[in-house]
Write a structure and sequence with these properties.
The protein is mainly alpha-helical and 124 residues long. The chain is 43% helix and 0% strand. It has one domain: Cytochrome c-like domain (Cytochrome Bc1 Complex, Chain D, domain 2, Orthogonal Bundle), CATH 1.10.760.10. This is Cytochrome c.
Length: 124
């Protein structure tokens, strides 16, 4: 029952988060906002305190080999699409109770810009 409740909360957060992903997102501004994230996350495959974020958009959560994810994130069943990233970056522990990610991006436009930037992080 508790797991069902957690899933329902996650679905609700994703649905609510979908409305805040903005069409006017700017990846250049997102790169600047992302500078705060770079202490823990690389824009490559390199794992730091957090996992590397190359090709993160579209990737299942908790799926990078060699990174020690929390059990909560590994078992979340999430895929990092725009609405899920938006909800997670807004309030990580609200979406995935037990995640080790504690930093958030409270401003809607900043999150949209960061997600737009993350979409550019693809292997060439």
């Amino acid at each position: 029952m508790e797991k069902l409740q957690a899933v329902m909360i996650a679905v609700g957060m994703i649905v609510l988060g979908a409305s805040s992903v903005r069409a006017d997102a700017d990846p250049d501004k997102g790169k600047k906002v992302f500078a705060r994230c770079s202490a823990c996350h690389a824009t490559t495959e390199q794992n730091k305190v957090g996992p590397g974020l190359l090709n993160v958009v579209g990737r299942p959560a908790g799926s990078i080999a060699g990174y020690n994810y929390s059990a909560a994130l590994k078992g979340s069943g999430l895929t990092w699409d725009e609405p899920t990233l938006d909800a997670f970056l807004k309030a990580p522990a609200a979406l995935v109770k037990g995640t080790r990610m504690s930093a958030s991006i409270p401003q809607d436009q900043d999150r949209a810009d960061v997600i737009s930037y993350l979409k550019t992080l693809t292997a060439q």
